[in-house]
Amino acid sequence: MAMPQESIWDVAAPGGRFWQWLPTPTTTSILWAALALGLCWLWWKNNSQNDRPRRTQGGRKSFMPGPRPLPIIGNLHQLGELPHRTLAELSKTHGPLMFLRLGSVPFVVASSSQAAKLVLQTHDKTFAGRPVHWTAPKIIMGPTMPSVLFHQPDAYWRLARQICVSDFFSNKRMHYFQGVRMREVSNLLVSILNVALEGSKPILLREVLQAGILNIIAIMSVGKPLQRFLTVGSGSCDVDIVRSIFETKASLGLFEIGDYIPWLAWLDLQGNRKRHRQVAKNARTVLQRIVDTRRIQHGSQGNPSPQDLLDILLKAAGDPNNKDIQFDDAAVRAILLDMFVAGTDTATMTIEWALAELLQNRNKLQKLITELHEVVGSSRIVHENDLPNLSYLRAVVNETLRLHPSAPLLPPHRSMDACDVDGYHIPMGTNVYVNAWTIQRDPSLWENPLDFEPERFLGSPMMDSIPGQYMELIPFGGGRRSCPGWRLGLLITQIVLANILHAFGWEIPIGTSVSLDEKFGIAVSMLKPLYISPLLKLESNILIDAQKTLSDLVEIT
Ligand code: HEM
């Protein structure tokens, strides 16, 4: 019988096989070797310029300017606690289109209104993507992230977004829920009244606002305030739905090292994954319970016409025309989460910032109070129908969104294709930040840009503009990825702000002050939340009667 031929490896080492000369590999040594190889690869990738936007002018190639990255972490160390501010500083050196590498992920930062226009208008379709490395949303919503906010712009996303825009956020639906919103505003006023009657103790205004606004979004989305869904049991652990929503928001706002150094993601260096998984399990449990209950109700009522977002989504999920698109329960849950996550803090923080600015600028506060008094009088609360007559209020909200946009860098966009922007060739898969914060404080666009001057909007065409119409003012983004809930966001911000200023005076406790320092997060908030005392201005029975009348008008089951 012929002997099998020896391979080159068998003969390479005299007296034995090649690998017998190597030390026996242990798991640790394999890990170290893998780590070393990974580091080399990252070093090479960081220093290679393959994915760096470049342009050719007069036969000479030049790269998009940007700060020099470090190995492995790229420019991550330069972001600091308030990335919109540090990126604004860097853009002063490197220009309005700047390249950075965050970890190993390539980013372009647009810091002028012209650069924003290129991203959000001229190449809107190309830059409609979202990052592919997004640990928390993937764990919480599932690997395809079937949410409007996080999903890539494909047929599913277009359908989900269109359902939201043309049905849920339609004028008809907004009008339908007007009574509900007013009733929740009156509830909010009465909860502040109870504090005021106790001798005007200071309150954490943010908590009261958050609870009221969450209720508005919940009723419009799932038919009733979240507290009305009894705490549900899931096996041995009980899941509180309001807590679950807050935990989800907190998880989605966490900085994840693996999103920037994907190669390290599996190590879960920050130990966040366990937390995300628990958050995902809780959210799935509470939301699925709501979905199942509604299905049972639908079953017993025949095919009712949709009223809230859940009805609309279930109708879409059962529509045979959508059978090629996976519009399943995971999608329904993710879109509901979108509304709670994207709709609550943005409006809450905008109201808090507005009040903080007004307390620092007492003459503007007085002007707004006078307007409210003239238009509404002192015998009733402010109604949504009053809003068209409250132009200074609208100007105050615009000015607040200019100085304090909730998402100062907008959520990251991503190029779905290679494209040329301002002569630079930008490869597919490049992430993009649009620095709305710096654009909205650009001295070449705004006079005295750091001053709180609502008057600048009076008589300006920007006063009632729609998102993306003016690139100088983009708190809601622009283009196909712009905020679909902007009308509702503005409505809630205006009606709540108007009412808390009309019904109460606000005092800063002696020995404290209002600080405009910021805290970065899913929505940028005040570092030191407002802790202020309400002083009743309207007669208390006006608030109590309003609450009673509105509750009688709008019944909730
Ligand atoms: C003052 C209030 C609000 C502000 C400042 C705000 C701001 C924004 C911004 C900046 C974006 C991203 C735009 C981009 O990527 O270019 C966005 C997206 C979004 N917003 Fe809002 N928003 C507000 C209120 C709301 C409300 C009330 C809802 C829903 C109830 C909502 C739902 C969404 C959703 C679903 C998206 C994702 C859109 C997409 O990716 O296609 N927002 N919002």
Describe it.
There is one protein chain. This protein is an alpha+beta fold. The chain folds into two domains: about 100 residues, Uridine Diphospho-n-acetylenolpyruvylglucosamine Reductase, domain 2; about 375 residues, Cytochrome P450 (Cytochrome p450). About 45% of the residues lie in helices and about 10% in strands. It is built from 19 helices and 15 strands. Strands 3-4-11-8 form a four-stranded mixed beta sheet. A hairpin with a 2-residue loop joins strand 6 and strand 7. Helix 5 runs parallel beside helix 12. The longest helix is centred in the middle third of the chain and has 32 residues. It is globular, with a radius of gyration of 27 Å. The N and C termini lie far apart (about 85 Å). The site of protoporphyrin IX containing FE has 26 residues, from helix 14 and helix 18.
Describe what is shown at a glance.
This is Cytochrome P450. Helix content is 47%, strand content 10%.
Task: Describe the secondary-structure layout.
Layout: H1 8-12, H2 27-47, E1 54-57, E2 60-63, H3 83-94, E3 97-102, E4 105-110, H4 113-122, H5 135-141, H6 155-168, H7 171-176, H8 178-197, E5 203-204, H9 205-222, E6 232-234, E7 237-239, H10 241-252, H11 257-260, H12 273-300, H13 309-318, H14 329-360, H15 362-376, H16 391-403, E8 413-414, E9 419-421, E10 424-426, E11 431-434, H17 436-439, H18 486-503, E12 504-507, E13 518-519, E14 525-526, E15 531-536, H19 540-553
Parallel strand pairs: 4-11
Antiparallel strand pairs: 1-2, 3-4, 5-15, 6-7, 8-11, 9-10, 12-15, 13-14
Helix pairs in contact: 5-12, 6-13, 8-9, 8-18, 8-19, 9-14, 10-12, 12-14, 13-14, 14-15, 14-16, 14-18
The protein binds protoporphyrin IX containing FE.
The site of protoporphyrin IX containing FE (HEM) has 26 residues, from helix 14 and helix 18.
